[in-house]
Amino acid sequence: MSSIIRPSGTDAPGRVDTGRRSLLRASGTTFLSATAVALLAGCERMASQAQAQNGTSAGDVQILNVALGLEHEAISAYSIAAGSGLVSKAVLPVAVQFQSHHKEHRDALIATIRKMGGTPVAAKPDAEVAKALNAASLKNQTDVLRLAQRLEKGAANAYLGVIPAFGDKGLAQISGRLAADETSHWEVLSQALGDPLPPKALSFGA
User: Fold this and answer.
1) Is residue 10 part of a domain?
2) What's the domain count of the chain?
3) Over the stretch 165-192, which tens digit does the pLDDT of each residue have?
4) DSSP secondary structure string, the chain?
């Protein structure tokens, strides 16, 4: 998901600024090295080769932690939705499935950050996320789905937005795969809401 809570800044210990803008801002000053992306993809041999050739970008851990913050908050947001009592039994399994995708993203990011010698950013309590989300204003299932739809599209745009920072097309593909997961979530949510297809092409990544 995109900025599931409002950006909190990076001054507080153990916290990072999350959301599309912060991810793009981080990539504007330094982008993920070949080593980081290879580790994220689970390609240990490729990572070793990349590190030997190019080393590791000093900003890799920072950017990965921004992405990890997005995934932590996505997981929390789906937990809040599931526990709200507003989601029907028919829709609940879909929310749980989407949450499991975000957990896989989270686990891959945590493993990569640790392999690079960094400290993964901690997840915020669900209560804190709920307050920032103004979850009390959600009155029905449509409200929940509409919020999730918006956040999933924001996440897809964030992952697409950092692709131009990669010099290697194969490595940029990893960011594209993450974006594809978020886009598939958005599509399912849009269908559930009965929304029409995007009227124009190239509706993502702008």
Assistant:
1) no
2) 1
3) 655 566 577 778 888 999 999 999 999 9
4) ---SS----S-STT----SHHHHHHHHHH----HHHHHHHTT-HHHHHHHHHHH---TTHHHHHHHHHHHHHHHHHHHHHHHTSS-S-TTTHHHHHHHHHHHHHHHHHHHHHHHHTT--PPPPPPHHHHHHHHTGGG--SHHHHHHHHHHHHHHHHHHHHHTGGG-SSHHHHHHHHHHHHHHHHHHHHHHHHHTPPPPSSS--S--
Tell me the residue range of the domain where 134 lies: 20-193
User: pLDDT exceeding 90 applies to what percent of the chain?
Assistant: 24
Residue 147 tokens, joined: 């919020």
Maximum alpha-carbon separation in the chain = 54
Domain membership flag for residue 133: yes
pLDDT tens column, 64-99: 777 788 888 889 989 998 989 999 999 999 999 999
Q: What backbone phi and psi angles, to 5 degrees, belong to 89?
A: -65, -25
Place of tokens 């493993």: 111
What CATH number is given to the structural domain containing 82? 1.20.1260.10
Determine, yes or no, domain membership for 165.
Answer: yes
Task: Give per-residue pLDDT as tens, 2-46.
Answer: 332 222 333 333 444 445 555 545 444 334 454 454 455 554 454
pLDDT of residue 184: 93
Q: Which two tokens stand for residue 117?
A: 């010698």
In angstroms, the CA 24 to CA 14 distance is 20
